[in-house]
Amino acid sequence: MRKLSITDCTIVFFLAIYCILVLPNTTSFLRDTGKIICDVKGLQFYDYSNLYNNKNINMSTYLLLNHEPQNLYDEFAIEVKTLKREKIGYVPAEYSEEIFEYLQGDHDLKVEIIRLSAKKVFIKIEVND
């Protein structure tokens, strides 16, 4: 039986790290279930509270998803905006890469508000091809 070299051990180590850190973050919710249900993140930093307090957002408000390439924290960041381009927040990072890939592939994604309160918005994202 051959002994493992330092190079072999290094390759095994980095492969293990990849499997632990990268693979679990790869989502396929849209492909596997046809939908993602999640809360919108960062509401407190954007227009949401004004929209909610002035009753300019409700269950029938149309929402858009838009890739934000200049985001410093997530290269796949997906903004959630109203049709009037008022940003309310972001899709959670664990879904952003998958949604980014759908948007890049010219898929039509339907976004629906399924629950909202003064501090939370839950949305459902579906492929609408």
Give the strand line-up of the largest sheet: 1-6-5
Q: Can you tell me the overall shape? A: elongated
Mean pLDDT score, rounded?
87
Number of strands: 6
Unreliable segments (pLDDT under 50, ≥5 consecutive)?
none
Strand content: 25-35%
Radius of gyration: 19 Å
CATH class: Alpha Beta
Helices and strands: which structural class? Answer: alpha+beta
Tally of distinct domains: 1
CATH topology annotation: Alpha-Beta Plaits
Name a few traits of the molecule.
129 residues, alpha+beta, Alpha-Beta Plaits, 3-stranded antiparallel β-sheet, 6 strands, 30% helix, 26% strand, elongated
Q: Can you describe what's shown?
A:
The protein has 129 residues and is α+β, with helices and mostly antiparallel strands. It has one domain: Alpha-Beta Plaits, CATH 3.30.70. It is 30% helix and 26% strand. The strands form two sheets. It has a three-stranded antiparallel sheet. Strand 3 and strand 4 form a beta hairpin. The longest helix is centred in the first third of the chain and has 16 residues. It starts with 5 loop residues before the first helix and ends with a strand.
What can be said about this structure in brief?
With 129 residues, the protein is α+β, with helices and mostly antiparallel strands.
Write the layout of secondary structure elements.
Elements: H1 6-21, H2 29-33, E1 35-39, H3 48-53, E2 63-67, E3 78-82, E4 87-90, H4 93-104, E5 109-116, E6 121-127
Antiparallel strand pairs: 1-6, 2-3, 3-4, 5-6
